[in-house]
Write a structure and sequence with these properties.
The complex is a heterodimer of chains A (128) and B (837).
Chain A lengths: L1 H7 L2 E5 L3 H13 L3 E5 L2 H11 L3 E5 L7 H10 L8 E6 L3 H9 L4 E5 L3 H12 L1
Parallel strand pairs in A: 1-2, 1-3, 3-4, 4-5
Chain B lengths: L2 H69 L3 H27 L3 H4 L3 H21 L17 H11 L1 H6 L5 H10 L11 H82 L14 H69 L2 H31 L8 E3 L1 H18 L3 E6 L6 E3 L1 H17 L5 E11 L2 E10 L6 H6 L9 H7 L5 H11 L3 E7 L3 E9 L19 H13 L9 E5 L3 H13 L3 E5 L2 H11 L3 E5 L7 H10 L8 E5 L5 H6 L4 E4 L4 H14 L3 E5 L3 H13 L3 E5 L2 H10 L4 E4 L8 H10 L8 E5 L5 H7 L5 E4 L5 H18 L1
Parallel strand pairs in B: 2-4, 8-9, 8-10, 10-11, 11-12, 13-14, 13-15, 15-16, 16-17
Antiparallel strand pairs in B: 1-3, 4-5, 5-7, 6-7
Helix pairs in contact in B: 1-2, 1-8, 2-4, 4-7, 4-8, 8-9, 9-10, 9-19, 10-15, 11-12, 12-15, 16-17, 18-19, 22-26, 23-24
Classes of the chains: A alpha/beta (128), B alpha/beta (837).
Chain lengths: 128, 837
């Protein structure tokens, strides 16, 4: 456990504009042993992904300044950030959101409110 | 001519003919009566003549006897006869008078010879008397008695016979005199004895009578013929009139029959057409009679119906738009509701985890309740969102090829935990020949999951089966999914309501089984969107089967299909536009576009020239359908629309424009020659109604008004987040493009990026307050031109006002209006400042 915390602690970038969601998810993920860094809009998310090179990005889709789709596309277009898996988080909606998230290059998709177990499963699958 | 008039004329004609017939009858009767009267008199006279002939015969015999007596010297006997002869002559004279009185003027002249003969007979008788007078009486003969001198005898006859002449006709006298004078020579020559003279005269009289008798007979014959001819002519004319009347009546009847049949057929055809809903059908109206009036009434009814229908159509469109707006609102609201719900659920879960870690079991239970209530509420919100999205037409299909059997396995995997929760057995059966299908996989999955979760929910210790097969019907392939359970089932009434929104089979179901009741309506709507449907079959207590029938190859909905590009502007019209545009100095590509729809080239040109001069870009269309296409494709700032056009008229174009959400916002100015329909035009959604000839100034003014009415961009500078958001939303709802800034500094940065059309400014702000911002704004190039609406809760001092100086267009005090009116008032003020700034 300690080893993992030292050597293998995954750095997760959470891009989320809603303060409560950000706070909640970052705290819950930290409790599960992840290092969580946060960004509040798409632009900042892209910048941080470049500078911090996280192991995985949780990307909210409806973001100010630059939305999640745009940010995902930007990240997947950049050779440096392309390998970083992105899980799109959107409010529940019909299939369009899921499809468009995948179209934008996201690796997986989950709906809010977050079912932590399910999300962790998806995260672990991508981090492996 | 009206039918009544025609019938009256016809009857008057018949009456006139009948009257003519009656008149003719009267006339002919009068002629016949007259003829008969003449005939009667002619017959009387004839009888008289015949009588006279008889007595003339007697007289001749007597005269012969006297002659014989004289010749044989029996003077005595002869003398005895004389008084009788004298009487005879008187009788004859009387008969002649009767005959004269019984004779018409034509016949009168033929009596003259008879009268003359009578005179001669009298003279002969006188001479005979003298001849037979015994010698002794000769001396005492009165001096008036004629002797040998004829003159004396004549004179005597004139005076002596005076009394006799008095009794007779005075007209008889002169011939007697003349005769007497003429025959005075006879006694001077005693060659012929007087008796013989007398006898000859009597025979002569008989001859005259015979002539008269013959003439009378001829006349009777003639009169009879005349009367007969009149009767015959009357008959012929009567017959002719009768025939004419018959022909007239027959012709009129035939014409009437033909006319009524023709018109009735026409009316019936019209009524049938209109009844069948072809409201643009018009009965051909000829003439002005009652049937034409009826046809006109029909046509008028059709006009009204069509107008009413157009109005209803417009109202329906408006209602649909309102409904869509409602759905959009709901969709947006659901989104807003979901964010706090996420927080509630998320934090309650976190607290639960904390409580579990720290062994606070009493908290765990309550927190779990909060979480499950939150989840239920969220699922409601999500369903409302789905439904609203579908209703608002915001759902797009993502059609891909996928394998339904794989989908089935995937769905079964997802639902298995739910099935086993109620101890249900889950059976999956996919037809090996299922193949691939082309559809929206997510929507099919969502539908199946929904049906399966229902089945699992309402079934306990039973079986839930999901099956799929392929079927060919109606010339295409269908994929049939069915979800069968052995659960509680539903009654027939419940089955009917199960797809209605916000209706669960039993409202108590919600309590027991949860759910929103929207799952099935949503599933049904999605299946229909894919070109299929869902049906249900259920028996209470035995179970329920839902069958989903989808096309194996779903086609994109018609609305999504891109119409092949068609040339929007005909060559002629392009040339026309180019010519008009050439007149303008330079055409601004950004200038507002006005579409002119009018079939009259002159009107088109005129309007275009006005507008081009005013700096608008103008495009024209000469017919409704083409104009409609242009409006859809180019979404002009305004449309001027002629009402009366061949083909698709202005009303139809207006209705079509207002029917489509894409064009409903384009203001339409109706331009027409008729003023009566103004209110109808406005009711149908026209922005304004103008009559030709077009008042150029007013038209241009109207379009400027429209153009100005299009909101621009607003920069809202306000430090309080809540207030700023509220203002932003209100202004965005009013159509403004809103940029936010929480203080003066941020606002200046925003200004640099894109200068807004108007600034809404709070005065008291951290970092850089409103006053500083204004100073900075006004010092910038072009900055002074942007109107500023100051929104403040602060009571402005004289000093403050001085600082604001001439910069400020309007100051709007927050606390001067009730809070609920604040936003409305703000929107209004912003609009006003923008219009006048």
């Amino acid at each position: 456990m300690i080893t993992r915390a030292w050597e293998g602690m995954n750095k997760i970038l959470l891009v989320e504009d809603n303060e409560m969601n950000r706070d909640m998810l970052s705290r819950r993920l930290a409790r599960k042993g992840y290092e969580v860094i946060v960004a509040v809009d798409g632009r900042e998310g892209v910048d941080m992904a470049r500078s911090e090179t996280p192991d995985l990005i949780l990307m909210d889709m409806s973001l100010p300044v630059m939305d999640g789709w745009e940010a995902s596309r930007t990240l997947k277009a950049d050779g440096k950030t392309r390998p970083i898996p992105i899980i799109a988080l959107t409010a529940h909606a019909l299939s369009e959101d899921r499809q468009s998230a995948l179209d934008a290059g996201c690796d997986d998709y989950d709906t809010k409110p977050v079912d932590l177990k399910r999300l962790l499963g998806k995260m672990e699958a991508l981090l492996r | 001519m009206t039918l009544r008039l025609r019938v009256i004329i016809f009857l008057v004609g018949l009456l006139a003919l009948a009257a003519l017939n009656i008149l003719l009858g009267f006339r002919s009767n009068a002629v016949r009566d007259n003829g008969l009267a003449i005939l009667e008199r002619a017959l009387q006279r004839q009888f008289l003549i015949v009588e006279m002939q008889a007595s003339a015969e007697d007289r001749s015999q007597q005269a012969r006897a006297v002659e014989v007596f004289v010749e044989t010297g029996m003077s005595g006997l002869a003398r005895d006869q004389l008084p009788e002869l004298d009487q005879d002559l008187d009788a004859l004279e009387q008969e002649i008078q009767r005959l004269a009185s019984a004779t018409d003027s034509v016949a009168l002249s033929s009596l003259d010879p008879l009268v003359e003969t009578l005179g001669r007979m009298r003279v002969a008788l006188g001479e005979l008397e003298v001849f037979l007078r015994p010698p002794d009486t000769l001396a005492v003969e009165p001096p008036g008695q004629p002797g040998a001198a004829a003159v004396a005898a004549a004179a005597e006859a004139q005076t002596g016979s005076e009394p006799e002449a008095e009794a007779g006709s005075p007209g008889d006298q002169p011939p007697v005199d003349a005769f007497a004078t003429d025959s005075a020579a006879a006694p001077l020559e005693p060659v012929v004895p007087p008796a013989t003279t007398y006898r000859v005269a009597t025979e002569e009289a008989s001859g005259h009578l015979a002539v008269l008798e013959a003439a009378g007979r001829d006349r009777i014959q003639f009169i009879t013929d005349e009367v007969r001819a009149v009767a015959r002519a009357t008959d012929q004319v009567s017959l002719a009139i009768f025939l004419a009347s018959s022909v007239l009546a027959l012709a009129m009847a035939i014409w009437f029959f033909w006319y009524l049949t023709t018109r009735m057929t026409q009316l019936r055809a019209g009524a049938t057409e209109l009844g069948a809903g072809h409201l643009d059908y018009r009965i051909d109206v000829r003439g002005r009679d009652e049937l034409s009036q009826l046809a006109n009434a029909f046509n008028g009814m059709a006009d009204n119906l069509m107008m009413a229908l157009t109005k209803v159509e417009a109202l329906r469109t408006a209602a649909e738009d309102a409904n869509r707006a409602k759905s959009t609102f709901l969709a947006n609201m659901s989104h807003e509701l979901r964010t706090p719900m996420n927080a509630i659920i998320g934090y309650s879960e976190m607290l639960m985890e904390d409580a579990e870690d720290e062994g606070l079991d009493s908290f765990t239970q309550d927190l779990s309740r909060i979480r499950s209530a939150g989840k239920h509420l969220l699922s409601l919100i999500n369903d409302v969102l789905d439904l609203s999205k579908i209703e608002a037409g915001k759902v797009t299909l993502h059609l891909t090829d996928f394998s339904p059997s794989e989908l089935l396995d995937e769905v079964a995997m997802t639902i298995r935990p739910m099935a086993s929760a109620n101890d249900n057995e889950l059976i999956v059966e996919a037809d090996p020949a299922l193949g691939e299908m082309h559809a929206d996989e997510t929507k099919v999955r969502q539908t199946l999951l929904n049906l399966l979760s229902n089945a699992c929910k309402f079934t306990n210790q039973g079986t839930v089966a999901v099956k799929a097969r392929r079927e060919t019907a109606e010339d295409s392939d269908w994929i049939i999914f069915s979800v069968e359970d052995t659960g509680i089932g539903m009654t027939e009434e419940q089955c009917e309501e199960v797809f209605d929104e916000f209706t669960q089979a039993d409202s108590s179901t919600t309590k027991e089984y949860g759910g929103t009741g929207l799952g099935l309506p949503i599933s049904q709507k999605m299946c229909r969107l894919l070109g299929g449907d869902i049906t249900v079959d259920s028996t209470v207590g035995a179970g329920t089967t839902f069958t989903v029938r989808l096309p194996a190859d779903v086609e994109a909905p018609a609305a999504e299909l891109q119409a092949p590009p068609t040339p929007l502007v005909s060559a002629a019209e392009a040339a026309e536009t180019a010519a008009a545009l050439a007149g303008a100095a330079d055409v601004d590509e950004e200038a507002p576009l006005v579409l002119v729809i009018d079939d009259d080239p002159e009107a088109r040109e005129l309007i275009m020239r006005y507008l081009v001069k005013e700096g608008f870009r103008v495009l024209t269309a000469s017919e409704g359908r083409h104009g409609l296409e242009l409006a859809r494709a180019l979404r002009p700032t305004a449309v001027t629309l002629d009402v009366i056009m061949p083909g698709m008229d202005g009303w139809s174009v207006l209705a079509a424009l207002k029917h489509s959400p894409k064009t409903v916002d384009i203001p339409v100015i109706m331009v027409t020659t008729l003023d009566e329909e103004r209110s109808a035009g406005i009711a149908l959604g026209a922005y304004e109604y103008m009559t030709k000839p077009v008042d150029a100034t007013r038209l241009v003014g109207l379009i400027h008004e429209l153009q100005d009415g299009v909101p621009g961009s607003v920069l809202v500078v306000e430090d309080d987040d809540a207030t700023r958001r509220l203002m932003q939303r209100a202004l965005e709802d009013a159509g403004w493009d809103v940029t936010e800034a929480e203080n003066g500094k941020v606002a200046l940065e925003a200004l640099d990026e894109a200068p807004p059309d108007l600034v809404v400014l709070d005065l008291i702000m951290p970092e850089m307050d409103g006053f500083e911002f204004l100073d900075e704004l006004r010092s910038r190039e072009g900055g002074y031109r942007i109107p500023v609406l100051v929104v403040t809760a602060k009571d402005l001092t004289a000093d403050d006002r001085a600082r604001l100086g001439g910069y400020i267009t309007t100051v709007f005090k927050k606390d001067e209006v009730p809070e609920e009116d604040f936003l409305a008032e703000l929107t209004r003020q912003v609009r006003e400042v923008s219009d006048h700034g």
